[in-house]
Specification:
By secondary structure, this protein is an alpha+beta fold. Helix content is 27%, strand content 38%. The chain has two helices and six strands; from the N terminus they run ββββββαα. The protein has helices at residues 72-90, 96-104, and strands spanning 8-12, 15-20, 23-31, 34-39, 48-54, 57-63. The chain has a six-stranded antiparallel sheet. The structure holds zinc ion. Residues 23, 39, 41, 45, 47, 66, 68 line the site of zinc ion (ZN).
Length: 105
């Protein structure tokens, strides 16, 4: 599926998140046009990632290795939420329950 390797930056109430090849990061700081990210599993994983956004193109300048497996399930859930939000934004007249039924069932 195309979502397997999806990447991108999403924002939610919890702040900005980066999804990159199966891992999720949260943003720590933004400096000199670069974003510095930390693995969402901060308790047992230390990696950081540095990205640069040029227009709409996201490039990952640096990414360290993780001490755990991909959090594919979390990534999937995150992508579903983002997709639902996109659809909902395009169709404000539709009730959420209907959006959900039409897009995910
Ligand atoms: Zn990690």
């Amino acid at each position: 599926m195309e979502e397997q390797n999806s990447q991108g930056i999403t924002s939610s109430r919890g702040g900005r998140k980066l999804i990159h090849i199966g891992f999720i990061y949260y943003r720590r700081i933004s400096k000199n046009g670069k974003d510095y990210w930390k693995c969402l599993r901060k308790s047992d994983c230390r990696p950081t990632a540095i990205t640069k956004l040029t227009g709409d193109a996201l490039s990952v300048l640096k990414e360290s290795e993780h001490q755990h497996a991909l959090n594919q399930e979390c990534v999937k859930a995150e992508l579903v939420i983002q997709r639902l939000k996109r659809v909902a934004t395009g169709h404000p007249e539709l009730p959420p329950a209907q959006l959900f039924r039409e897009n995910f069932l």
